[in-house]
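Hi Y.,

Following your request, here is the sequence exactly as I used it, all 274 residues.
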Amino acid sequence: MKKDRTRELEAFARVLDVMDELREKCPWDRKQTIESIRPLTIEETYELSDAIMDNDMPNVCKELGDIMMHIVFYSIIANEGGKFDIVEVMNKMCDKLIYRHPHVFSTEKVKDAEQVLQNWEQLKTKEKDGNRRILSGVPESLPAVIKAYRMQDKARAVGFDWNNKEEVWDKVKEEVAELEVELRKLSGAKEEIGEEKYRDLAEKELGDLLFSVINAARLYDLNPDSALEATCKKFRRRFTYLEEHTIREGRNLREMTLEEMDAIWNEAKKQEKE
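Below is the corresponding structure, written out as C-alpha cells. Let me know if you'd prefer a different format.
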C-alpha cells in the first residue's frame, strides 16, 4: 500500500529551500567546499554513533538531521560545479537498491538474510561502476576494529570463512602463543636495535591476535566495536568514580597505592551491580 508522502515531501523541500538560502546569503556557508565540509561530516557521523550507542533517540533524530544537511550541502556545491545534484544522488541510490534486491523488485528467491548478503556482494562486483575487488568497498580510513570486521564480513559473503565457529578458537589460542613468544624476546632484548626489531614483531603478532578475536566475535554474531565501546564507557564511568572519590577526600591519585585505588574501583563495580 502506497503511503501518503505529502508531509515527507514538504519537509524535504523545506530542507532544500533552507540550504539554498544559506548557501546564497550566509558568508560561512558560501565559502565552504566539499573538502572543507569533510572533517565536519566525520565529526557528525561519530556524534550520531554516540547517540545510537547511548540509545538517546532525541539525539539520534538531531544527528540524523545534521547528516542529511551535509548530504544536501555536498549536492548543492557539486551542482554549482556541474557535477551532480540531489536528484541524481537519490536516483542513483534507488537504482542501486533495486538492482541489489532482486528478491524484492524481481522474481529471484532467497532463503534467508545470509543469502541476501551474499547476493549483495556478488552483484556489487558485476556493476559497471561498482567495486572491482571484494575488499575495495572497505574504506582505508575506517577505524581498525570496524575495518577488520567489515573485511572479514565481505570475505565471508563470497565463501571465504571458517567451516564452523569452534575452529576459530584454535586460531585465537595460536595467536596468543605466538604473541607471548615475541613478548618474551622483547623483554629479554639487550640492545636498542634488538628491542626495536622485537617490538615490531610483537606488534605484528598483536595485530594478528586482535584480528582473530574480531573474527571470533563476528562468527558468534557479536559486534566487537560495540562491545569495546561499551567497555570503554564502563571504564570511564568507574575511573570517574575513583577520581571523584579521591577529590572529595582531598587526595591525589598519584599519591595513592594501587591497592587503595583498587578498593575504590571495586566500590564502583558494586554500586553498578546494585
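Residues 8 and 238 are 44 Å apart (CA to CA).

Thanks again,
Q.
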